[in-house]
Amino acid sequence: MYICGPTVYDYVHVGHARTYIAFDVIRRYFEHVGFDVILIINITDIDDKIINKARETKRPWEEIVEYYIKDFFEAMKLLNVKPAKVFPRVTNHIDDIIYMTRALLEKGHAYVADDGSVYFSVDKVEHYGALSKQRPEELIAGARVEVNPYKRNPLDFALWKAWKPNEPWWASPWGPGRPGWHIECVAMSTKYLGHRFDIHGGGQDLIFPHHENELAIARACLGPESFARYWLHTGLVMIRGKKMSKSLRNIVPIRELTSKYDVEVIRLYLASTHYRKPLDFNYEGLEQYREVLNTLYTAHDYLASLLKEKALDLKDVSLPQATNDAEQDFLKRISLSVEDFERGMSNDFNTSQAISALIRLARTCMAMTMAEEKLGNSILLYAYSTLKELSEVFGVLSRALPPLNLEALIYELVDLIVEVRSELRSRKLWPLSDRIRDRLLKVGILLNDTRFRTLWKWRRYA
């Protein structure tokens, strides 16, 4: 899998998170069903936006890049997105980009313009526009291309941009300059995954011109059957029906969101809408998935406590055979949830169906704790491991039970007992309130009834 990564000139926001979480869930599902996944996520560390940011802030472009790369990696770790095998940076692959540009020139698919830039010639590509389902004449009419007097065709795009004053540059056979955007991903994806790989992904806004132009470059340079077998694009994130964008000032930074909501709530919420559909972001949806996560953790913690009490080891998990009607019923319910989960995920990653199946499985697990005496250890182990395994696809239930703070727990419990005893005293139930006082005294807790309230303390001496 090759996923278009960030252009590092600003903070990671919810729109980015939606894409990376969606592909993280897809990657995890492939691993769940037994595939080995090689994931590449590139980092665009030289671009017009980076140069403009450096000018606006009067900071070196390299400093801008390093600052926002750090933010990207911190956000991915915070969001529990599994790391790619390689995060190639454009500036580390200049030679690969120059090599591919030279090959396109030799094949007649590119030309050197008068300004020293190298442009890809769209006229010589069959079926250009097929990925975005648009004809070239429609693209020109829609004015969705950069106007440039050096181009032979308005749809042609830069493979190598000639140097301009006060811009970073690298040496090339055509003079100093820097890579164009579209060729970067072709050079890096094929370097690490070969000329033919399985999945190329990114946000829906990359279909044209970025992915359309990537495909044109790859087919022209490497052959008509080269490049990605499947293209997956995540839908846009909307807020109140409008696209999330910096110009509208409706961006929600990840750091702001994670300060208010658990990361696992955010993951479930962003993954709950099918990856191709737009997501209308709202806080009501996050609250809903806070409750969903509570359901999953309640089932997890109940079963985990049972397994710990029985000293059961997850290494002993196997598919159990039912020995009574209760076990048969629960095994059937678990099996139906698993089948529904995998049916949904295998149908173009229908995460909504999969999450519904996961919730049903959690409720089945909670019901099992109520019927514990009728169930053997093997079925309890199997239910717990199944819940964990399916939850892992969504990157949730990754936290262990928190360590018990016995001191804090004792103080809370004594406060509660004293409160209940005060209520008994107000009802003049003296024998029962005296019994509580005497039992507490036996374990070293001394009560002192004053006119207005009851105080308690540890008795220092026996």
General description of the model:
The protein is α/β, with parallel strands linked by helices and 462 residues long. It has 3 domains: 2-272, 3-Layer(aba) Sandwich (Rossmann fold); 283-393, Four Helix Bundle (Hemerythrin (Met), subunit A) (Up-down Bundle), CATH 1.20.120; 406-458, no CATH class. The chain has 15 helices and 13 strands. The chain has helices at residues 14-32, 48-57, 61-78, 94-106, 136-141, 181-193, 207-222, 254-258, 263-272, 283-309, 325-346, 351-370, 377-393, 406-426, 430-442, and strands at residues 2-3, 40-41, 110-112, 118-120, 157-162, 177-179, 196-203, 227-234, 237-239, 242-243, 279-280, 445-449, 454-458. The protein has a 4-stranded parallel sheet. A 4-stranded antiparallel sheet has the order 3-4-5-6. Strands 10-9-11 form a 3-stranded mixed sheet, with helices on one face. Helix 1 (14-32) links the parallel strand 1 and strand 2. Helix 10 (283-309) runs antiparallel to helix 13 and helix 11 runs antiparallel to helix 12. The longest helix has 27 residues, at 283-309. The radius of gyration is 30 Å and the shape is elongated. The model has no long low-confidence stretch (mean pLDDT 93).
By CATH, the architecture of the largest domain is named 3-Layer(aba) Sandwich
Structural class: alpha/beta
In whole angstroms, the N-to-C terminal distance is: 69 Å
Largest sheet: 4 strands, parallel
Neighbour order of strands in the largest sheet: 2-1-7-8
Morphology: elongated
Catalogue the unreliable spans. none
Give the C-level CATH assignment of the largest domain: Alpha Beta
Strand content: 5-15%
In round numbers, the mean pLDDT is 93
Care to count the β-strands? Answer: 13
Specify the CATH homologous superfamily of the largest domain.
HUPs
Number of helices: 15
- What value does the Rg take, in angstroms? 30 Å
Briefly note the CATH topology name of the largest domain.
Answer: Rossmann fold
The number of distinct structural domains comes to 3
